[in-house]
Prior knowledge:
Layout: H1 27-41, E1 74-75, H2 78-83, H3 90-97, E2 107-109, H4 114-127, E3 130-134, E4 155-159, E5 166-170, E6 175-179, H5 184-191, E7 196-197, H6 210-216, E8 233-240, E9 243-246, E10 272-279, E11 281-282, E12 286-294, H7 297-309, E13 316-320, H8 322-327, E14 336-344, H9 350-362, E15 366-367, H10 384-405, E16 408-414, E17 417-418, H11 419-441, E18 445-453, E19 457-467, H12 473-490, H13 506-512, H14 515-528
Parallel strand pairs: 2-4, 3-4
Antiparallel strand pairs: 1-2, 5-6, 6-10, 7-11, 8-9, 8-10, 12-14, 12-15, 13-14, 13-18, 16-19, 17-19, 18-19
Amino acid sequence: MTSPRSAESTPRRSFWGWGNEDGGLDEAEREALKMMMGARLGVTELTELAIPRLEDVRLPEPRFAAPSSLVAVLSQDRYERAAHTYGKAFRDIVRGLEGDFTSAPDAVALPKDEEELRRVLAFCEERSLAAIPYGGGSSVVGGVEARVDGRFGGAVSIDLRFFNRVLEVDVTSRAARIQGGMLGPALEEALRPHGLSLRHYPQSFEFSSLGGWIATRAGGHYATLHTHIDDFVESVRVVTPSGVLATRRFPGSGAGPAPERLFLGSEGALGVITEAWMRLQQRPRFRASATARFVDFRHGAEAARQIVQAGLHPQNCRLLDGGEALNTGAGDGSRSLLLLGFESADHGLDAAMERALSIARGFGGEVKEGTGSTRETGEGARDGDAGTWRTMFLKGPYLRDALTRLGMIVETFETAVTWDRFEAFHAAVLDATTRAATEVAGTAVVTSRLTHVYPDGAAPYFTVIAPGKASGRVAQWDEIKIAATEAILAHGGTVTHHHAVGRDHRPFYDRERPDLFASALGAAKTALDPRGIMNPGVLL
Length: 540
Ligand SMILES: Cc1cc2nc3c(=O)[nH]c(=O)nc-3n(C[C@H](O)[C@H](O)[C@H](O)COP(=O)(O)OP(=O)(O)OC[C@H]3O[C@@H](n4cnc5c(N)ncnc54)[C@H](O)[C@@H]3O)c2cc1C
């Protein structure tokens, strides 16, 4: 057993669930959650599963030993292997709680520079080992799981935690060169002294990395204007089995297909993103936020569409249905709730907010008294309903784990669809999901929200909470997810708006993607990764 470098971050990350080992809900919070969900679902008997102990979990012996040249880089420590087995989807948490770590990687590589990383990739090529890049490990689509076929003699999870610095800041162009393994909070902390910010906030912000965001085309929240990480990527540096590929920095270029775009959404299948020059923004000084209530989701969605089509660019334009508002404590369940937020480093926002609220009122929106005016503080967006929602948003993953411990099926999925199909689409997906969940579990709560809205369409998000049967909760969820995804594809939506493809969405992605594009992508992979070791099973 080798453990070459200890994690630089303390406290230690949970090996089975979200966040740190000392994070999560305390006993009183878990008890309150149990009462609330029990009442909501009409379930009286909810027993809490114990947290797994590392010494008890099923973890196979590694299939190879680290060669002497890599002892300082490859860890085969029990904790590291268990902690790198899964991402953080519901199906991952369930398997973790059940102590099933049978697909653990044989080793975890912790390279501290590109030279060590190149040696790890060469070793994987030589020994036919799957090489799986690992940023924050927050994948919800099986993107980091070593579910690989018999061609491979084992798997190495390549953790980028030591690629954790901002290397250069170009204040004039408002951009920075940032290493791929940097997690959200550290990245923002390093930019703060320059008055700059990436302003990319996926819900997983605390425990996900720049390289992971780029590799999955992550979507930020509080970001209707700049939604996907794509918008911020100026150039990338990627270590591939065929060598290093570094694209040049341009604010824009018409010189052929853009090389850096190839790596957006590449999911570790083409190489390891070690650095990127990222476009930044000044930290906002002015903020305005408001909420409006609607009699139903349809009226709220119409208002959201008109607000973005008016070119107002709110940073936040998020619509919660009644159930979602109730779940997050931002409403009583009787009304849909539109959360609007504008921000700027440069100017007041009253005119834009006034126009957005007048559109909302045009669709019957009741605007909450005392909201909407510009505040020159960092705290404006956090008051009232929006503040309640934000707190719950960050706590959400811990709540999800707590509900999973109570034997629930609890998971979300997201998609995007153009406005012309939206109404029929939303109704069909909600119906298919509710029917499937009720069939599987007997009773279910399915809620919906619009997380991102565009001039040409919206990204609806759905959450399912249902009492799972005692065993086989992964299969129960899979049945619901298949029904939901079939409805999504049949009604013109995408298999994912921002969660990537991974291993879980592969069969559906293959149906969405043009065949010739798959061939072109396959050719690019062959050029960069001729032996096919890079994250096999995702994308291709
Ligand atoms: C509770 C929760 C909330 C979430 N909220 C959001 C959200 O709001 N928006 C959103 O977009 N996603 C969200 N996600 C999904 C996930 O956080 C994103 O996909 C995120 O971008 C993954 O980043 P990561 O660093 O954790 O990547 P990992 O999970 O480590 O890896 C994800 C994929 O990227 C590859 N990869 C990672 N790093 C690199 C690298 N340096 N080079 C090449 N490939 C790499 C991996 O091989 C894998 O295929 C959420 C997940 C959870 C559990």
